[in-house]
Design a protein that fits this description.
Blueprint (H helix, E strand, L loop, with lengths): L15 H27 L6 H19 L4 H14 L5 H4 L6 H18 L2 H10 L8 H16 L4 H18 L6 H19 L7 H14 L5 H26 L6 H5 L2 H4 L9 H27 L4 H9 L2 H10 L17 H4 L4 H19 L2 H13 L4 H18 L2 H18 L5 H10 L11 H7 L6 H30 L3
Helix pairs in contact: 1-2, 2-3, 3-18, 5-8, 5-16, 6-8, 7-8, 7-9, 8-9, 8-23, 9-11, 9-23, 10-21, 10-22, 11-24, 14-15, 14-16, 18-23, 19-20, 19-21, 20-21, 20-22, 20-24, 21-22, 22-24
């Protein structure tokens, strides 16, 4: 049996003041969560009864997630259970979110990452990345390279798959760097991987589901078809601007306090064990990884050559969805042996159960609550109330609100659900105001991919949060700032590019 390796842990030592703040934050949150939920429930809000109860429940859940009064995975289990108790949904429907297909992407990718870690394939990859000319010489270049690769991959495969692919590589790179002062930098690298995946996802129509949802709704409601090229002409400049802003933000918030000459002298590479000959475990783990990558990329390639709605692409997506691909590839780890006697395999069950089940539960709970927000009408009421309260009727005013709503709603539910909820609402409002619905719809679509503050906001956030290297308050801080930056870039980009591309 292979000897399990402990997952990387935060290297930074928190000050006494930080520890005291954490203790008070949790104590306050323990009582503030139920208190806020009760207050929202008692307020005479203009909501349907079910939406009112859902608003109260979400208020308490968000406080518990932000303050970590109880483990956030427990909150993810408790909140849907309370929703059932409050009559907001049937148990079999609410709890079905924990079996959503995206959950199996998590499970499969975590198993593959675990095998790569055990057989030290992540460290071999890390040495390869660091050996690129110029890349391994400074922390800044390592930082930028990992983010750029993630963003590029995310243009063609799902944000989740791109993060799952880069996650073990990033961990391997971090394990090779000087550890005594790398805690903040490690946080930055993990956030760079997650945020770059969301940023890169907007670059092509197939990069993330909200893009196709927005394009489809625009075509259905207006008859205006946005081509693959038109989308990229609009989205790629926004993606590049966002990546530049992301790099500047995270390198400022999470610098590495190690002199560049120490790394340029080869310190990072010397801390990696000599790779030596490939072991059977490495080959098997790499094979499973490549099977997943190939099958994740294949639908996008087929879509480019045959069209996104061709029978071949439709058949492939129905038979091998991303979750199915992840489980299929991960299953190979339990089948491929590492010795000729067929007594040991690439991954044992004892090793497999050590993946981060808490993160899986966390995202399942987020999906359940997101579905309930939609079904109870809370999300629609929030969107309509937001705009009617502000009395905004101009094209760019509605577009700004659409972007803001897309970002805010995506913080609490999946970007796919956010696009489904917000895009139809803002298009209806734009048409009622007799302005073009295209910029508002595009703004809501792009904004739905830009929720960065919480682990439940996106699957990439949840994946990297499972590394144990990201304190929740740091994700909130970086995510909140990046949300504001993203709003500005999307709004400015749409106002500049929509008229140029005829998307008015």
């Amino acid at each position: 049996m292979n000897t399990p390796m402990e997952p990387p842990q935060p290297q930074e030592t928190f000050s006494e003041a930080e520890r005291r703040f954490d203790q008070w934050r949790k104590r306050i949150g323990l009582f503030a969560g139920p208190g806020l939920a009760l207050l929202v429930f008692l307020l005479p809000l203009p909501l349907a009864p079910s939406a009112h109860r859902m608003a109260a429940l979400m208020s308490g859940a968000v406080v518990y997630w932000v303050t970590e009064a109880i483990p956030i995975a427990v909150t993810a289990l408790l909140a849907p259970t309370l929703a059932i108790l409050l009559g907001l949904g049937k148990a079999d429907v609410v709890l079905a979110a924990f079996g959503d297909k995206i959950i199996f992407v998590f499970i499969g990718s975590f198993l593959i990452a675990r095998a790569m870690e055990i057989h030290r394939l992540d460290r071999r990859f890390a040495g390869w990345v660091l050996s690129w000319p110029g890349v391994g010489k400074t922390p800044v270049r390592i930082f930028a390279t990992l983010g750029a690769i993630t963003a590029f991959l995310s243009m063609w495969i799902s944000n989740t798959a791109a993060t799952a692919m880069m996650f073990p590589i990033a961990l391997g790179v971090l394990s090779s760097l000087p550890k005594e002062r790398s805690g903040s930098y490690a946080t930055g690298v993990m956030l760079m991987i997650a945020f770059s995946a969301s940023v890169g996802g907007i670059g092509t129509p197939i990069g993330t589901p909200p893009n196709l949802i927005g394009i489809g709704l625009i075509a259905k409601q207006t008859g205006r078809t946005i081509s693959f090229f038109e989308w990229m002409a609009l989205a790629v400049p926004l993606m590049l601007a966002m990546f530049g802003a992301l790099y500047a933000l995270l390198s400022t918030l999470h610098p590495m306090h190690v002199a560049p000459e120490r790394i340029s002298g080869g310190m990072a590479l010397r801390t990696l064990d000599p790779p030596g000959a490939w072991t059977a475990g490495e080959k098997n783990a790499l094979g499973a990884f490549l099977v997943a990558v190939f099958l994740w990329i294949l639908p996008g390639c087929l879509g480019i050559f045959y069209g996104g709605k061709s029978e071949l692409v439709t058949l492939f997506n129905s038979r091998l969805p991303e979750g199915g691909v992840a489980i299929l590839a991960a299953s190979l780890l339990f089948i491929l042996p590492t010795d000729r006697s067929l007594s040991q395999f690439t991954l044992s069950w004892e090793e497999a159960v050590q993946i981060d089940w808490a993160t899986i539960l966390l995202f399942g709970g987020g999906l359940a609550l997101g579905n309930l927000m939609f079904e109870t009408g809370l999300s629609k009421a929030m969107g309509e109330g937001f705009i009617s309260t502000l009395h905004i009727q101009s094209l760019w005013g509605i577009t700004g609100i659409a972007i803001l709503l897309g970002i805010l709603v995506s913080e609490l539910t999946s970007n796919t659900a956010s696009a489904n909820m917000i895009v139809p609402v803002v298009m209806a409002i734009a048409m009622a105001a007799q302005v073009s619905p295209l910029p508002p719809a595009l703004g809501a679509t792009l904004g739905a991919s830009y929720g960065f503050m919480l682990p439940i906001s996106t699957p990439p956030n949840a994946i990297v949060y499972g590394s144990g290297l990201i304190p929740i308050r740091r994700m909130i801080r970086a995510g909140a700032i990046f949300d504001l930056i993203g709003f500005g870039i999307i709004f400015g980009g749409l106002r500049l590019l929509c008229p140029l591309l005829g998307l008015i």
